[in-house]
User: What shape does this take?
Amino acid sequence: GCNDDAPDGCGDPTQALNSKLCLPNLPRGDTFYLLVSGKSEATRGKYSVTVRSASSCSGEDIGSCVSDVCVGGAFNGDACTIDAECAVAVIPANDACPFAEDIVDLNGDNAMTQRFNVGGASEDCRAPSCLGNLKNDVWYRYEATETGRLLASTCGGTNAATPDTELIIYDGCDCGSGLIEERIVELGEELCCSATGDPFDCLGGSDCDISVVAGNCYLLRLGDNSGSGAQGDMELTLIPDSSCPAGTVTWNDPLSGTVDARYPQDCANGGAALGIDTFSVTGAPGATADCWSLCEASDGGLGPNGIASVVEGAAGEYTITLNRPITPGSCTTLTYDETGVAQTAKFSFLPADVSGDGTAGPADILDLIDILNGNALAAWGAYSTDVDTSGVTGAPDILAVIDLLNGAGCFTPWNGVSIETGDTCGVCPIATP
Assistant: This one.
């Protein structure tokens, strides 16, 4: 277009000798060149260019959707300069909801800082519920990697440096079907709307704390609350829900502290490993397998051990199965680790240690005789007395202790051997009930 001083369709038929030109419906993304000059070389003056976004709001009574971007300067004959106070305002790539910027590095192990600058952004046509004065806005898209709480805040600076912002978070990432020149008409439910002074100690900043579900998508709309082109940092933190609910853990079978004095191998079956490989535990319902961990002071040359499965039967009743029986001669710990609190049970496997004192020796033969005669109690029930793993406690178990101490059959001699505690799992104290 070109205009000297004639009416131009801008709604101003009395513009005298000034020039005024309106170019409607310019496509977004296209490039245009503007030539500004006077009637003669001596003509001087000011010029301005206003880029105005669409003002149609699809009939919704949501106020003005007009956002102006100012470019200006001065002309002096053939010379033309740009005024720094009215410099080109760059339109952010995430100016509109359909072009929301993905937040990709946020997870439970990694908080992040999102730098923002809403100068040059337009305002989308969906008024938020909080009582702010939303101007320019930009958009972010976040697909939650974990279930928990999403914290988003522009309150990270000092009060003087806190930008004047308005932050709205919507459930879902659908920008709506009613888009008019990329202005938003439909969005999901508002999960948070934080304007100036909310919270009060944040002054102009915004602060949101919402619950998110892994795999669900959320839109963050961050705007300027004063029209001054707010810029700064938005701090983002994801706090995952603990998959290890709080509650007391009870080690039912075997009991915590148990010392297993039974055969470590089945000599009649090719020396197959025997011993404790399954635990019955009661705790808070809903704990996942990641809540439990196994540690052994030594693997006895058998290779690393570990948890094969954790199965919850009735609410809070768990069966924990290992890859193999706990290591003979070693201290073993099994830990339930809720957030910040660890509950650990300790077990030992020392063949022939009937007394459960941590060392196998001839005295254990006498201890077993006393138990069979009713003169003493078994330290750990059948784990102390059913040495031959027959399922019945009796005189053959005395011979089994002797065989273990002497290394008869396929057994390693256990006489004088003490439980190896090491430093890996901490000291494994021997306790009797």
